[in-house]
Predict the structure of Cytochrome c oxidase subunit 2.
Amino acid sequence: MAFHIHPLERKWLYAASAAIAIFIGSILLTALFGGIHPPGHMEIIDSARLHLDGEFMEDKLGVRTEPDGSVHVTLVAARYGFFPRQIELPAGTPITFRIASADVLHGMHAPMTNLSTMIVPGYVSTVTTAFPKPGEYPMLCNEFCGMGHDHMWSKMTVVSKETWTAAHPPAGR
């Protein structure tokens, strides 16, 4: 039995195949040459014990400046807020955020910046970014996490490098 494809259907089949090939090719090129890759080296953490020991203890949360001048932020996302609620950061400096969830799936997004990540219970989310100019930035949860989700926010205040250096000398100096 002979198989017959109408010429118009054949053209659409070629067009669809070409579109799929272009999409897959663009994903591969972006992954290879743009340095985009899936997350690896995932850190596992016990969400139920976050507050008891380690870097996510309540007294260790917040912003710290390392001796080399790098800035690290340790946050906990929990119903319904990011803790600490307010942080101050320097402008134009790479900042590494380490965030863990104490309960359910959360997301962190700072509008008008490239800061956005998913915070999965049992894992540590690590993101590095920089804020080019001083100002106040809200930090919002972008994953529905329960009835109080719309109240889950915190505030980042970004100050100039000069103001930051004067107020926060690096640790160990």
